[in-house]
Amino acid sequence: MDSYQETVIRVRYAETDQMGVVYHANYFIWMEVGRVEYCRSKGISYRDMESNDQVFLVVGEVNCRYSAPARYDDEVQIRTSIAEVNPRVVRFEYQLSTVKDAKPLATGWTKHVFCGGDKRPAKLPEKYWEMFGIPLPAASR
Amino acid sequence: MDSYQETVIRVRYAETDQMGVVYHANYFIWMEVGRVEYCRSKGISYRDMESNDQVFLVVGEVNCRYSAPARYDDEVQIRTSIAEVNPRVVRFEYQLSTVKDAKPLATGWTKHVFCGGDKRPAKLPEKYWEMFGIPLPAASR
Amino acid sequence: MDSYQETVIRVRYAETDQMGVVYHANYFIWMEVGRVEYCRSKGISYRDMESNDQVFLVVGEVNCRYSAPARYDDEVQIRTSIAEVNPRVVRFEYQLSTVKDAKPLATGWTKHVFCGGDKRPAKLPEKYWEMFGIPLPAASR
Amino acid sequence: MDSYQETVIRVRYAETDQMGVVYHANYFIWMEVGRVEYCRSKGISYRDMESNDQVFLVVGEVNCRYSAPARYDDEVQIRTSIAEVNPRVVRFEYQLSTVKDAKPLATGWTKHVFCGGDKRPAKLPEKYWEMFGIPLPAASR
What Cα–Cα distance (Å) separates residue D32 from each residue in B89, C17, C107, D85? Predict the structure, then answer.
């Protein structure tokens, strides 16, 4: 897909570890920030989707490849896009790089299952299809 | 009060920061571990108290004084006691030290308001009084 | 002191807990964000101060009083100021509130000891005095 | 490989999120706990390896598949093994399950590059080969 959204975060001291760089698990927190901003840019408030419509994106699998360490106080750009989507599952992809010199830091993806209020798999309501880039069935158009 | 409970945790890599020591906010997570184990030692499952009886200990104020840094892979002892308690409020106190040489690391306290399912202040149900060390009213004994 | 700096962060999903609100220890991470931005607004890069001049602000004591819970996706304003400072110690104060309706969330403070590369107390180098608001001795002016 | 090590952690309140289950990034912190205990069981102190021999296991790639949510206060068993290893790279594998009823929670792996004090790739010193399960060259036996 050709659509992506860019968000910038600044590395917090708490996110570093004694190796002097960002602890690897924190990249998944940044991906979540990217994901939420991606949704917002498409007109979806993830918060409202959860609280008003009981739609939850339960995490099924995640992956991250690290190419260079992020450091304290760096500004990190998160480029988020949707790699795969259907009314059951969505997979986001992320490219992380430094703002200052566009150095690639990591690439990753997270796969989510659309779930209902009981946190069990449930088809995404049609009102969200367009915003997630799912083609509407002919009858709905 | 003379009753306390001791728990030991081991410092995780994720808990350190680039200063090479444990990031200060993590001590409050350890205090929570101490608090939960204190409750367990008194026969209270904090989990059940929340899910079965809708009793929540909402944090009102916290404090920590640091005397020496905890380091990666250190075993840290958390000594937890109740400093003040009544059916509305409980204040826990904590002393943290290294297991290896009993070096004091920090002392802290956390004050909690007993709340109900709506997260608003609510008197602690009498069934929990004894375990929290609150004297029962004469009629209930 | 009458000088303060304001920073805004947005609550991350990772920062919430099962009570449906922000976990209390995370406020200290936000205070750190506020502190760093306060320094930046005074022309001090905390990162450079550490790496170039081996000046470390080691945390000595922290405190936070919570008045209302922060929630997922809220924008939180952190108003940071210096409450006390001398060449040995600095105490920052923080007021946290929601951006949307200026609702007070918490107030806190953190006390730091200026330390050198060995992480032991060391007088703050004079070049930083003015920026921290410490009056320079007559001879240095 | 047929050798594995088992560690148990208990889910902390701080590790949950507002979905009422453990936030997904925390599994990587638990894997780190498993990894360190795996090393300890083989006679390797990861702390000493870093501080005495300047050997660092820099994270290159990580993956986790989630099958069921871990919940607050659950005891979680982490079964750690080495899936691949040579003097340049090691890949650990993890199986996470509940202690109470052996319910599978997640499987994951983390790939690490052995690095030196400058955090650049460096062949693992031979003294550690046996403990990581790397066959020693004939001449060294």
Answer: 37, 22, 34, 17
Q: Quick one: how far is CA D76 from the chain centroid?
A: 15
- pLDDT score recorded for residue C35: 97
CA atoms of B72 and A18, how far apart (whole Å): 8
- How many other β-carbons are positioned within 10 Å of the β-carbon of residue A11? 20
Among C13, C20, C23, beta carbon nearest to D14: C23
Q: How far is CA D17 from CA C21, C98, D25, D119, in A?
A: 9, 20, 11, 33
Q: The complex's ipTM?
A: 0.95
Q: Do C73 and A14 touch (CB under 8 A)?
A: no
**Residue C3 CB coordination number (10 Å):** 11
CA dist C84 and B78 (Å) reads 31
How far apart (Å, rounded) are the C-alpha atoms in residues B57 and B80?
16
Instruction: Answer yes or no: is pLDDT of D1 > 90.
Output: no
Do residues C120 and C101 make contact, with C-beta atoms less than 8 angstroms apart?
no
Token pair in block for residue C134: 């410490």
Dihedral sign from CA coordinates of D74, B48, C71, B24: negative
B104-115 and B89-98 strand pairing = antiparallel
Quote the CA–CA distance of B62 and C65 in Å, as a whole number: 7
Indicate which residue of C17, C48, C53, C74 is catalytic. C17
Active site residue C17: yes
Q: Is D45's Cβ below 8 Å from some Cβ in B? A: yes
Radius of gyration of chain C (CA): 16
Mean pLDDT of chain B: 95
Burial code (b: 16+ CB inside 10 Å, e: under 16) for C77-102 equals bbbbbbeebeeeebbbbbbbbbeeee
Which residue among the candidates D2, D17, D53, D101 is catalytic per the annotation? D17
Dihedral sign for Cα B113, B115, B119, B121, please. negative
Backbone angles phi, psi at C15, to 5 degrees: -85, -10
Angle at alpha carbon of residue A39, lines to A12 and A102, rounded to 5°: 45
CA distances from A132 to A40, A44, A127, B28 (A): 11, 9, 10, 39
pLDDT along chain A (141 residues), means of 10: 87 97 98 97 95 96 98 98 97 98 98 96 96 84 54
Residues with Cβ < 8 Å from D102, sequence gap 6 or more? D77
Q: If phi over 0 gives left and psi between -120 and 50 gives alpha, with beta otherwise, what is residue A128? A: alpha
Q: Which of C19, C90, C97, C94 is nearest to C59 (CA)?
A: C90
Q: Which residue has the tokens 């990190």?
A: A76
Cα distances from B111 to residues A56, B86, C106, D62, in angstroms, run 33, 12, 14, 39
Q: What is the pLDDT of residues B36-87, one digit of tens each?
A: 999 999 999 999 999 999 999 999 999 999 999 999 999 999 999 999 999 9
- Kindly list the residues from chain C whose CB atom is less than 8 angstroms away from the CB atom of residue B61: 63-66
Chain B interface includes D33 (CB < 8 A):
yes
